[in-house]
Amino acid sequence: MRYPAEHKEETRERIVHAASRRFRRSGANVGIAELMKSLKLTHGGFYRHFKSKDALFAEAVEKAFSEMRAKVRAAIANAAPGQELRIIIENYLSEAHCADPAGGCPIATLSQEMARHSPAVRKTFDRAIQNSIVALSQYISGSSDEERKRKAGVLVSAMAGTLALARAISDERQRREILAAARRVYMETFAHDR
Q1: Is 97 inside a domain boundary?
Q2: In CA terms, which of 38, 42, 146, 173 is 20 to 30 Å from 157?
Q3: Do residues 19 and 56 lie in contact, with contact meaning Cβ atoms separated by under 8 Å?
Q4: pLDDT cut 70: percent of the chain above it
């Protein structure tokens, strides 16, 4: 049975979406057979869509960053002028984001394992981080674009590290305290009037 071209594209998108969530939740050790079975697809069918697991991983990383950009845009859509960074920090370091690694920031979930991936995958990750830094820099004070980008890079790193640490803490109270303290410090440090 032959399927229309749009069916193939829809199937590919389902695979990328599921892989993006799985990789963020469990790391890159997710098996292709397991992933395809969860989608009620065959393992062999995977290769009709992707050349390799690395190719899927790169697309899944792009998908994860695209989802995060959409969440940030939605969060700040109704923010008062000058309050965008506060909204970004509050949402990123929220208990809800902390509780949802599969739907959350790929920097916090995948950074540690990037060194084990191919240069192509790492370049995809690098580009996405740089794009995130540039996007965030527009909401940070500074005397030049370069200064704002440097500060945004520090904030991205700090927030991703805070989120990763908070997820690792088993004590719920301590996790909430870490998130709350980091929100306060980052807002005091980065979210002053531009």
Answers
A1: yes
A2: 173
A3: yes
A4: 96
Range(s) of the domain holding residue 115? 53-190
Question: Does any domain span residue 39?
Answer: no
Q: What is the DSSP string of 71-111?
A: HHHHHHTTPPTT-HHHHHHHHHTSHHHHT-GGGS-HHHHHG
At residue 140, the 3 state secondary structure works out as: coil
Higher per-residue confidence, 35 vs 174: 174
6 lies in a domain? no
Instruction: Indicate which CATH number applies to the domain containing 141.
Output: 1.10.357.10
14 falls within a domain:
no
Does residue 194 carry a pLDDT above 60? no
Among 100, 107, 97, 5, residue whose Cα is nearest residue 48: 5
pLDDT at 32 over 90: no
DSSP three-state, residue 40 = coil
Listed as own residue / partner, the contacts of 153-162 with beta carbons closer than 8 Å and 24 or more positions apart are 155/89, 155/186, 155/190, 156/107, 156/129, 156/132, 158/182, 158/186, 159/89, 159/92, 159/93, 159/108, 159/186, 160/105, 160/107, 160/108, 160/111, 161/108, 162/93
Number of domains in the chain: 1
pLDDT digit string, tens, across residues 49-82: 889 888 999 999 999 999 999 999 999 998 999 9
